[in-house]
Amino acid sequence: MRIRQAGPDDASAVARVHVRSWQVAFAGLVPQHYLDAMDPSHEESRWKSRIAGTRWPSSGVLVAESEAGIVGFASFGPSEESSAIAEIGTLYAMPEVWGAGIGKQLMAAALTTLGQADYAQAVLWVLEGNERARRFYEAAGWRPDGTAVVDTTGGAALNKLRYGHPLG
């Protein structure tokens, strides 16, 4: 397994991982009609723009690559609330490789990179009902900080919790 910075040519593979992981991880949490309508070809241009807009090491996209190709990714940058705080916006892996340590490797690489960017703290958001993800983050040292918002992805009201992690 190799973790590396994503390039523009990786956008298609990142979009595939994004859609496939959402369709499995969020089944029963996000409305099924929304998940069914997700299409990697619709996500590719967004990922191409996001990768092109990287300001390494303060923002970027990392990919996990195996012999089978890209099987996971993480994206990060300054949080919307403060440019002094980093935010991990995404961390997804193909369901077929869940439990193989790819998420841990991506998280470690993202935190190392954010530490090099001189952020003192990182945050991320997780659906309250996503117990698997919450266990993963808590095992990696992330803690809920008491902040919650309601997300209306797919037309449903979904509670999201903010988790924090010190850097450095």
From TrEMBL:
<feature type="domain" description="N-acetyltransferase">
    <location>
        <begin position="1"/>
        <end position="168"/>
    </location>
</feature>
<keyword id="KW-0808">Transferase</keyword>
<keyword id="KW-0012">Acyltransferase</keyword>
<dbReference type="InterPro" id="IPR000182">
    <property type="entry name" value="GNAT_dom"/>
</dbReference>
<dbReference type="Pfam" id="PF00583">
    <property type="entry name" value="Acetyltransf_1"/>
</dbReference>
<dbReference type="InterPro" id="IPR016181">
    <property type="entry name" value="Acyl_CoA_acyltransferase"/>
</dbReference>
<dbReference type="InterPro" id="IPR050832">
    <property type="entry name" value="Bact_Acetyltransf"/>
</dbReference>
<protein>
    <submittedName>
        <fullName>GNAT family N-acetyltransferase</fullName>
    </submittedName>
</protein>
